[in-house]
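>> received
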Amino acid sequence: MGVENFKKFQKEKITEKIDVKDIWGYTRVSSKMQLVNNSLEEQRSEIVQFANKNGYALKNILGGTYESASGDFTRKEFAKLIDEVKNAKQKPFGIAIKFISRFSRTGGNAIAIVNELVDKLGVHLIETSSGLCTNDEYSKLDIYSKLLDARRENMDRLEKTIPGMKSLLRAGNWLGKAPRGYTMRGKKVADYTLLQETQSITINEEGELLKKAWKWKLMGERDYVIRQRLELLNLKILKQGLSSMWHNPFYCGILVNSLIEAPVKGNWEGLVSQEDFLIVDSMLSKNKRNAVKEYTKNKINEFRPLTGFLRCECGCLLTSYEVRIKNKHYYKCQKCKNVSFNASTTLKSKAEGLNNSFENLLSNYTLNTRFIEPFKLQLNKLFDTMNTEGKSEMKSLLAKKKDLEMKIENLDKRYFDNPNFGDEKYNRYVLQFESELKANADQMDMNEKKLSNHKKHIEKVVEKVQNISDCWGRGDVEDKIRIQNLVFPEGLSIRAENREYLTKKVNGIFELISVFIRVEEGIKNEKTHQNVDGFLSVAGTGLEPVTFGL
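>> returned
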């Protein structure tokens, strides 16, 4: 009996029906220069031709822009591609890319993404330049190998470029696009009109306006008010952009980068001094600490300026609200039961309003005209005390200047006396010394201004403190808030039982005024200038002339 008798048991081969397979395309370049060079169009054309030649229906092409391949989901278009594939009701057979390296250069991470596409979603990766597709196991291994090669190539590039990048950074040069307010010229710029051999970063028209923003912030102005003022000057900036600026050392001429061990002085002029930048940073850090679990029921209202400033004796910030039927405003402690204060004094109110009592409190820090000259005398002594540190710093800066000039002189001598010294070595050191010399000169100039302008500040201080109480009463809500924070920098508390204000810390200038008032009331019998001499060291603590920009 032959085996032919068993043929009837063999199943007939079913002829597969060939369907047109839908695919998507993805294109990407890593730089704007490649975008200009029509590289994207070349990739797109390759994908279209591949689909026509191999019987695929090209339904969608994504990407189409320049994005770095250093990360996967940090790329917006790449993330969009993966999201759309996952959410598509009709999944494509595959995603076509001219070169696998255009898909990703993250190596292992990229392989994990491809695995998920293939095994979970049934979507393959196709390299049009080679015809490789992950529907074949051997081709899949080749694609994985290419993804790893792309990662290795990236690492090799970094190994060669990072030392040069570090050298540029240490010399005070900026990598990447200059922040808002600056124009950068050099080799690595997108605008061809800004191309030049060496890098230079200069303040532009927007930068001049942003200088004003820094001054307003130092005066204690709120971000939304600063944005409104800038908009009146035809400069629009998002609140996130403004907040980011306060925390970016670039704006005080300092370069901070993870590639170098420590911050360095940048080769550009800051919009703000280093000292003022740190003052703003300190202000923001303090506000952040004080903001924990503290809130106001409503935004600050012109009839309730003490909201968020005044505390209950228990330590909780007072919130505020309005009884619309009565058209009356109140402050309230959210922690203590039945602790509520009327904001303003009325004919029917049982107690004096907090706004009125606060204005009366400020009258205790109003300078009588007959004490103006003695007050100026004490302010001069106060500023002299503050300037002692500045004079000491100026002495150090002068010594550093002489040292740098001597180094440059010795460098020149070694260069001309020793033919083996080398141009590259000379240029590197001379650039470093000249950069340090310029930074030193800027610091000296700033110090000189601080030492010479105290008379001007004294006149401004006297002008404001002659009637600080009326200034608060007549001012709008923003003026009121500035004055409150100026006189009582750490806030103010109130005892609910008798509505007594509890002051922790008073600005040194206003504490000095209270001494004169006590003298006037006959509490102290010695001469005015003698009474306050011993107080100067206390009054001067933490005092900055900029605080008086009311």
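>> The mean pLDDT is 81.
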